[in-house]
Amino acid sequence: MKTRCEWCLGTDLMTAYHDEEWGVPVHDDLKLFEFLVLDAFQAGLSWSTILKKRPNFKRAFNNFDAAKIARYTDRKIEGLLADPGIVRNRLKVLATIGNAKAFLETQDVFGSFDDFIWQFVDGKPQQNKWKTMTQIPAQTKQSDAMSKALKDRGFRFVGSTICYAFMQAAGLVNDHVVGCYRHTEVGKMAISAK
């Protein structure tokens, strides 16, 4: 039987996410924006809640197409706030639309969101060697810097803790504990990333 990080052992959905996605280096702008949206919606909620609703978020937010989201009308916003399949939080919905605009502007300035966001780890995933879940920080100086830079560019719901969760999800850091079978696998992916 494979040893895994404890946080994923509750449900098959969480385990599959842990085994297939968490910590894998992401360089696709669309996927990076998806994680940014989902992590913002997670604020104050469990990741399990967001993961269960992920297909609904994908449907409701046009497959996380930032160009489409940036043009959402008041009517679309009201439709989202009436959608029981997602988290119906007006501030988070409005932040997602604003973040889509900021995301597109960032792409224009940096050539890609990928080039912008990976600068906070010097372009390569940090390989942490935590022995237990309790050692993993909620934020770091890198997530502090990312949070500040995103806020300066007009993003919202991008506090340092949210940024660190994003870094973990998108593989900017490998926070699988060393005893987890994915620690080594994700570490090898980091070598060939990009």
What are the main properties of this structure?
10 helices, two-stranded parallel ribbon, 194 residues, mainly alpha, globular, Endonuclease III, domain 1
Overview of this protein structure:
The protein is mainly alpha-helical and 194 residues long. The chain has a single domain, classed as Endonuclease III, domain 1. Helices cover 56% and strands 2% of the residues. It contains ten helices and two strands. It has helices spanning 12-20, 29-42, 47-60, 66-69, 74-81, 90-110, 113-117, 141-152, 160-169, 181-192; strands spanning 126-127, 173-174. The chain has a two-stranded parallel ribbon. The longest helix has 21 residues, at 90-110.
Q: How are the secondary structure elements laid out?
A:
Elements: H1 12-20, H2 29-42, H3 47-60, H4 66-69, H5 74-81, H6 90-110, H7 113-117, E1 126-127, H8 141-152, H9 160-169, E2 173-174, H10 181-192
Parallel strand pairs: 1-2
Helix pairs in contact: 2-3, 2-6, 2-9, 8-9
